[in-house]
Fold this sequence. Notes:
With 156 residues, the protein is an alpha+beta fold. It is 42% helix and 32% strand.
Amino acid sequence: MIIGLGNDLVHIPRIKQLFLRYGDRFLRRAFHPTEIRQFGDIYHRTLKNQVNSEKSVELKDHSPFVFLSSRWAVKEATYKAFGVKDRRRLPFPSILVEYEKENNNDSVQEKGRPVVRLFDEAQALKESMGVDMIFVAISHDGDYALSNIILEKRSG
């Protein structure tokens, strides 16, 4: 049985401006430490490519701001799906977006579907509401990132 539904649309340039204005403070307040590390890797790789190229790096799929914006959309959609009014009950850093890992011979690659993992207060809220599954969809195009979340509770 579906017990929660949330969606969010994010304007990618807005997230870029938040990062450029507040830097690490913004990252720590909104993202899980794993996401911050992943963003840092993407950001530094993008900067390196920009320095090595005469052309500026465009906002493409690999862009660090697409990465941040898609995760922000998931966090907002999750917040809406849970229907909580007090943000302290669902702090954004306690929501982690990952991808299912696929074993491919010698390496493990993130090629599967996106998954949401909850920690601390967010996990406690999930348990208190009896949420068994969280389904997530993420997409982006142009200047926008989008996410949909469905919370499911098994019947019986």
